[in-house]
Amino acid sequence: MPPAAEPLSNSRHADSDGEDAARLVIRTGGADLVATLLTAASGKHGIQVLGPRLQPPAANCLRHNASCICDLVIDDAPSDAEVHYSVERSRDIGRAPVWHSPNLDQANTLPGSTVVITGSGEAFRDIEPALDFLQRVRPRYIIHHMTRPLAAGPLWDMIRNGPMTRDGIPSADYLAVIVDASDLRAEGIAISQALSWEATAEDFVRNLGSNGRLDTLVTCPNLIVRFGTEGVIYHRGRDACDPKLYYHPRKMEGERRSGKDAQMIGLSSAFTAGVALGFADSNPPNCDRGIRFGISAASGLSKRGFTHSPLDDAPDYPIAQIMESLALDRQHAVVSIPSARISSGEKWSIFESVTGDPAELARQIITFGPEKALATCPIQQFGDLLTVERSEQESLRAVVEAVNERLNSSIRRPTSIGIIGSAGSGKKFTASNLAAHISSDRSTNRLNYNARLLKKDDLVSACHAIRDHTASGELTIVIFENFEAVLEADSALLNDFLVIMRDGQFTDRGSVHSLGSPLMFFLVNHDNTSGTDEPFPPPTPTSPRTTDFRPRPALDLSLLMDYLHGLVRVSGPNMSSAQDKAYSVRRAIMLRHLLAQKHPHLIVNGKMNVEEGVLHALLLVPRYKHGLHSLEMIISTSRLSGRNKFDVSALPPEEQIQLHVDGKIFMSHLRAPKLVPSLREKLAEGMFEVYKKRRVVMCKNEEELKALETDRSMRDWDELAPELKESTRAQADDIPRKLRAVGCFMLNEERSEPLVKVPEFSVDELDMLSEIEHERFNAERLQRQWRMGARNSKQRTTPFLVPWRDLTQEWKDVDRVMVECVPSILEKAGWHIYRMREDVEMNGTS
């Protein structure tokens, strides 16, 4: 069995006189903590646990076995009646670990026994007992939580090919090695931290093999790399398969949320205990089950921290609480890391991997909210700002890290952040929420200035105000809007601003003053119109000035870039390029926020009540002329007071809508949107052939067959009347709506988990979709002025304008066949039906 360490907890309490008192408490960690956790789960899982033999806690135990000392503090606001402690400071003693074997005389080791090893064999003071132990036991499973130095020493050489069978043959699949990402980084493996899960995964793929000494670790059959309690990468080094990334969609590595996760030690041991329960619970071993148990155990310990033990009136690990509630983790999503694509230099996006049609996802965001619709997508939140795009997440995260680094240092100069985007992209909203995120635990002052209106004297006055606020000791946040005016060639303030940004100084009447260390945001309106990626011209200002009709002066952004400590490019609600697939999702997040903020009464039972046609128009109109401002104006001028649904009648008149979008396109989207013409024609023709075959099957005799030959609706597609063709095309246009009704969508590419391919509809789904199809048929015929009567397409009469319940079974079956054929017809056209696998619980995001 593995070695054991005994961390020391120094817990501070208040004595009866109100003074702080220190108390020394001894708690075992490492292998003994693993054994204690497994013992607590032994009854539930039917296992027997033999832990390491340790010396009793005494002075000599501290001298020989202690590995670290921790200072604990009592949490200020416990969520229950228990007293909880978190780790304020931890110091490693640095003593070499000692191997502690279990007492094998206590029980017979069975052929399916599992050995859990913690630590590094190379670091043990005496490795021979460990080697002898493994020779005697010959376990079926080995789980090794490896610490530094990695992949070194005779113990690793003995187990790296897997446990030996009784016949002396190694079983590679029965070995699992757990490594903390911090240990890989310490060994020279360059893996980014808390930037984005994509960046972490890409660095892992590209750099894992960069240290040749770790080749045996890279080729380990089951390598499990921990990234705190927030993520895990599972790598099968001997198989030609992609690694898997388990990630928390709302947290990055090492991130605490709302102060609910305690600073804690022993998380690796808790994870190892969970892996042991799942990994060795099946044949062959189940790494996915082990990882999910491990994440659950480590997360439980992180949330609880140390609790107060009544046994000795001192802090202790919450063993019983963790193992009693242990279940397979469902708060982390999993995705395959595309190693080949990453190795070829391609940038990878989890958002694109785990979502389907962006337009359909955008509808879900508005209807059900981003938390539910984006349950498996990595979302990063900064104040009220939600971001799903990797590039934006990484730039925002880098800015936060850079700002915190400077604010926590002794640098007495400004920190300058650039926020660049087109007019109306939401730069001020981004800057305000970024500032709120950074200053969440600081006392702040905020100042806003419009750089376009500033004169020399105004800037000097502003600098004095900033200086006075920074002198108070509070964090001063300054936002300069329309800073592009300062960057124009004829600006008289450019040099003054550059000196402020570079040196933190300004001049007033010949005297030089220090500005202090404010946090300054520079908001620049800038359209990227230099390349073909920009599909639309710059927007026309809402209130044009004379200067707006002149050519806009070119901006030299390089002057600004030289003095910035961070930069964020804001895309806004409009499509930024032909490759921008996420614009409808960005727009949906903005729209949901606006509606929830200004019209919360539209949310009924967690669902935003917006008519489908209005959703189509707001989400799919190509461009808002003034960006976010146009979207806000359409919402603010809609008649929504006292309504419980946002329908077409609530929208402002078309003339007013025309001020903010292309009115004709917007109004066309209020009606049912049409498919791409080429796809529309393919699907309509395919559905028409299915209809014709069904009509032939329905014939009961030769007379009915002959009658079909003269039926105008049974002609070949090329000879079919235009009105009947258009009717079938409308039926094809309705496919996406029907798919949404059963939680599905269509994609023109093959995808894997977490998207699940739907080759056919279930019986219940067919029943529902058949009725929806008949309702669509009735609506279409009534809109085209058809009426009840004998079937006659020339006279526009049909006997089927009746409710579904009154339709004969024969014709109900026609509707059923027309929806049953949809998956196969889409397949022939190169499209597939998918639905999102829903197995991520979002109740743990707070």
UniProtKB/TrEMBL annotation:
Residues 530-549 are annotated as: Disordered. This is Ryanodine receptor Ryr domain-containing protein. The lineage of its organism: Eukaryota, Fungi, Dikarya, Ascomycota, Pezizomycotina.
